[in-house]
Amino acid sequence: MTERALAVRRAAPADLRAVLRLFATEIEGDRCDEDAPLPGCYGDALRRMASDPDNMLVVAEEEGRVLGVFQLTFIQHVANRGRLTAQIENVVVAPGARGRGVGTAMMTWAIDEARRRGCFRAQLTSNKRRTRAHAFYARLGFVATHEGMKLVLAPVSA
User: Fold this and answer.
1) Which of 3, 32, 72, 84 has the fewest Cβ atoms within 10 Å of its own Cβ atom?
2) Which domains are seen in the chain, by residue range?
3) How many DSSP H helices and E strands does the chain contain?
4) E-only strand ranges, the chain
5) Which of 61, 57, 59 is nearest to 46 (CA)?
């Protein structure tokens, strides 16, 4: 894969079905029905993100095909001299595109954007079962310094 052929950019409404298909590959048993209209909640969420400079959905695209996706959020701190942290989440690369530089291109884009915005740290979350992803992030310089926890407040329903 050549870098010129791969574009990393903010997601557009036309990308939603492909993005949801990528997310479905990471959730066992979840499917993205190609023919069904998308529920409005997805478009609503993308519109809210598009109007927020501190929250973006980003895709990696090659020849019109979305091959990867991630969310990048900037968190304002009072501690750490009032500087920003870049939070990277929901990183998915299409199974057929893994090992071809898509993930590296996406993470490079995210880290460059974090530096451009003056962030003092980039951080991410990753499921404990995704050991190959952890090795990938370590190769990029990420260090597992903290233990994360979650509290589900409301189950996600279709």
Assistant:
1) 3
2) 9-139 (3.40.630.30)
3) 4, 5
4) 6-10, 55-62, 65-76, 84-93, 121-124
5) 57
* Residue 23, amino acid: F
User: Alpha-carbon torsion 92, 94, 100, 101, what sign?
Assistant: negative
CA-based nearest residue to 101, from 136, 58, 56: 136
CA–CA distance, 114 with 137 (Å, rounded to integer): 16
Cβ pair 15, 66 in contact under 8 A: yes
| Per-residue 3-state assignment (H helix, E strand, C coil) for 19-62 | HHHHHHHHCCCCCCCCCCCCCHHHHHHHHHHHCCCCEEEEEEEE
CA distance 149 to 133: 18
The model's confidence at residue 80, banded by pLDDT at 50, 70 and 90, is confident
The 10s digit of each residue's pLDDT in 86-142 is 999 999 999 999 999 999 999 999 999 999 999 999 999 998 999 999 999 999 999
